[in-house]
Amino acid sequence: QVQLVESGGDLVQPGGSLRLSCAASGFAFSTAFMNWVRQAPGKDYEWVSSINTRGSTTYADSMKSQFTISKDVAKNTLYLQMNNLEPEDTAVYYCVEGAVFAYWGQGTQVTVSS
After folding, report:
1. Coil/strand/helix, residue 74
2. Quick check: helix, strand or coil at residue 18?
3. More confident residue, 37 or 101
4. What's the pLDDT score for residue 99?
5. What per-residue confidence (pLDDT) applies to 13?
6. Binning pLDDT at 50, 70 and 90, where does residue 23 land?
7. What is the tens place of the pLDDT at every residue in 45-102?
8. Whole-number Å distance between alpha carbons of 6 and 29
9. How far apart (Å, rounded) are the C-alpha atoms in residues 110 and 6?
10. Residue 2 confidence (pLDDT) above 90
11. Kind of pairing, strands 11-12 and 108-112?
12. What DSSP state is assigned to residue 3?
């Protein structure tokens, strides 16, 4: 079955960087449409970024200068490089498979605080 396991979340100071990883299995990762979605405390889910089967990427407008999505097909792993983090980026970050957001990982906590 589809499994998505996120890692890399941590406590980081404002201005810091993190790289999130999502280990994928149970489906054809090399041809999958993949997404990152986040949920801040007390708020709705917020789409962050997507990467399509050809490797083309899209980002939420407020995040396109901060975040970079990528995938390593050989390792079946999705990444999210996050730079210049701010307290407003504090959230649980989810790896999500599919253009219809069918399968979700358990999430990884990112906390930005001094």
Report:
1. helix
2. strand
3. 37
4. 86
5. 98
6. very high
7. 999 999 998 999 999 998 888 999 999 999 999 999 999 999 999 999 999 998 888 8
8. 15
9. 11
10. yes
11. parallel
12. E
CA dist list (Å): 21 to 7, 26, 41, 43, 114: 5, 17, 21, 23, 24
102 C-beta neighbours (distance < 10 Å), count: 11
Q: Tell me the one-letter amino acid at 82.
A: M
Evaluate whether 78 touches 21 at the Cβ level (below 8 Å). Answer: yes
d(CA 51, CA 44): 22
Query: Is the sign of the CA dihedral 103, 79, 35, 66 positive or negative?
Result: positive
Q: If you search the block for the tokens 């997404």, which residue do you land on?
A: 35
The two three-digit tokens of residue 101, written as one number = 């957001």
In the DSSP assignment, the letter for residue 44 is: -
Residues 84/66, Cβ–Cβ less than 8 Å:
yes
- Contact of 18 with 9, CB cutoff 8 Å: yes
Residue type, 98: G
3-state DSSP assignment of residue 75 = helix
